[in-house]
Amino acid sequence: MLTYSFTDTGSDCLYIHLYKCIKNDILSGKLPAGTKLPSKRSFAKNLGISTITVENAYAQLQSEGYVYSLPKKGFYVMEITTPSATAPAVSSDNFQITRPSGYQIDLVSNQTNPDNFPFSIWAKLIRETISEKSEELMAAPPCGGIMELRYAICSHLKAFRNMDITPEQVIIGAGTEYLYGLLIQLLGFDKAYAVENPGYQKLAKIYECHQVCYHAIPLDHYGMDIDALEASCANIAHITPSHHYPTGIVTSISRRYELLAWASRKKNRYIIEDDYDSEFRLSGQPIPTLQSIDQSEKVIYINTFTKSLSSTVRLSYMILPKHLLEEFYRRFHFYSCTVSNFEQYTLARFLSDGYFEKHINRMRTHYKNVRDAFLHALQKSPFASHIKIHEEDAGLHFLMDIDTSMTDSELLQTDIQHSIHLACLSQYYFKATPEIPEHTLVLNYSGLTLEQIPVAIDLLNRLL
Amino acid sequence: MLTYSFTDTGSDCLYIHLYKCIKNDILSGKLPAGTKLPSKRSFAKNLGISTITVENAYAQLQSEGYVYSLPKKGFYVMEITTPSATAPAVSSDNFQITRPSGYQIDLVSNQTNPDNFPFSIWAKLIRETISEKSEELMAAPPCGGIMELRYAICSHLKAFRNMDITPEQVIIGAGTEYLYGLLIQLLGFDKAYAVENPGYQKLAKIYECHQVCYHAIPLDHYGMDIDALEASCANIAHITPSHHYPTGIVTSISRRYELLAWASRKKNRYIIEDDYDSEFRLSGQPIPTLQSIDQSEKVIYINTFTKSLSSTVRLSYMILPKHLLEEFYRRFHFYSCTVSNFEQYTLARFLSDGYFEKHINRMRTHYKNVRDAFLHALQKSPFASHIKIHEEDAGLHFLMDIDTSMTDSELLQTDIQHSIHLACLSQYYFKATPEIPEHTLVLNYSGLTLEQIPVAIDLLNRLL
Asked: How many CB atoms lie within 10 A of CB A46?
């Protein structure tokens, strides 16, 4: 049974202390979703406290959504998730997805800082949309989304990524996860999908949930390993060529052409190009997308406003190759667009009135400042000689090798993990991978503020 | 090749006339999505007009989103859909889903009238949400949706449907179509699904898109035929017991218990209860949901705000039986909720501040007035002796038998179909059904206004 010490409750009363202990264990993953909590009576007996104290702690946890109760059965740990791009490894069952807000410092979640969301402009645009578009707001949009937004996305992609596409190629959906599901329906449940190893483990989970076959393909320094890809029976390669998550590898131009050539060799081969954080490449030349150099219509490009605007605006899009349009519309025209008209019209205005570009520029400066300050603080830290930083140029995270005798698993189970949320590179590898590198942290600074940096350094120092 | 007459262009210039002709054919389904339009030059030659005229007409169609162009290939008809609950039959390939706005009168679409949406209240609640909830709006919600909304839905279901459920049973999603997909992932791609015949054909399409096996089960007067259901190998029965679409049959209480008994007999059997328009039962006693009389946790209840609030607010929910919660959260906790926080918080307020109840009451009165006026006008019409109305008590549509020598297929291809959008009961049957009844119209009056009734009667009169 769970046991907590009541010797050091600080100024907290007993039930609050117990509530905090359980909450921390839920947030740290020690108590995973679905775990049954001990019965009030036996728990009270075990801890040497009154049943009422346990009852109050449970009630508090329930009202805050950490646990739920089933009549006559007891209390269970609620699922507490973050729609984070940085899902933990499926390879390590101990590593639970946890709610970022439970930590002092969160270097895993890609949740955006609320202060950075352009609330007043967004509110103004919603107001304008409601007052000027009442009829359009009530009209059923085409399954691919409202035309204004699709036109605005075309212009944006032309300006930012030099991509030449037409609005009917743009398909709007409520998040990339939804679009992946739609793509499986389009490309086929009988196809085999290739994902990156290490990589974004949520992808593999989505393929698992849809009961389709997938292969984890290793990377070399230039991107996905072409020989391994060819040797697998995969039809569809799902990759992040602009900035691989989490290693930061940028797929080289020659590897890009090799991937395109791989796709061209067979009829049913496609590449899903996930361009999830290309807006935030902080240094170096922007790299052309695979989509823009693809001559054979083999690339399906996916991107999202969830990363660039807010993790809680569920709006993503994919760009289909033209020869797939007829099949897509014929088979899926009956689906309703999953994003409400209110958000589609608001975002269309946000894009076409130039606010998005301003927002991205502002955010890029903000992230550059945070990154530079964080790197500087790390280099000046007492543990500077024990770390090595790499892949700090692109996107919103970097890697840090650390000099420690702890295994990654031990490291992630230290007490300090209650205060600072960390992920190891090893968590992004699939279970069966022969040599999984240890002692490299993946530090995501998208939610970090300048004020938090000294705290983060202090916590890292205690850890190392 | 397409041919249009230019003898009666009215006051329209040539290109506008051509644009209207093509638009009408797209809207009526004569030119289905994906159809290639003739090349400008050959079309011009064929019609005896200039290439510029064709070019202008195509440009107009393209700018309005009716067609799209592929470079060096030509112009194609865009998919134009309505997220209507009243999807046309898969059994009749000629019957295209068309955009309701193209008709003078639309008796097929369930699109709501913009005048009925509570814009000012909704705008006020969005404003309040943005100003008071900036932090919560940016926080990642649990995969099932924000707790406030799930609590509010529990209270609503308790008050309206006397259902006792807990918030963790409520799963929010961007439309019922998305939730069906999630349910297939939960219940299994290897299961066989039973749908109603006649029935809501979109369901069958969704099962087809997910490549799962489904059976079309006939109905008798009391609901889904139990013997046929038992004889099929179906594990999951997907039904609309409160008000069958489109026949209006209300599943009898004894059939409800038979269905529950059917589900209890095997471990993997479940019932999906789609309660899509229960808020709008206009007469008679409300019927308890299957979910509320289910003792064996075999019912998954689904409902939507898309029908009761607006067809463009993409927000639906399902109520999972408690014993499925552990599996659901364990397998799917990594999924992000597909509805943006903005809409979730706004709707939570709309529900808990009592606006939804007021809105439903207002709409019920409105629909009752429209229905009564429409029925009255039909009974006073010149063709009153040629029609028979039934199932007019519940929901937002009724059936009307008509006395005509035309087949349904002929009827739906008459010119009058350019002006009035009608559906026949036969369109809701699956292809292989032995005896499909003809000469019954399904009249959906949810988008009809009192002012439109004389026009509708006039158009029906010309048809009959």
From this structure: 14
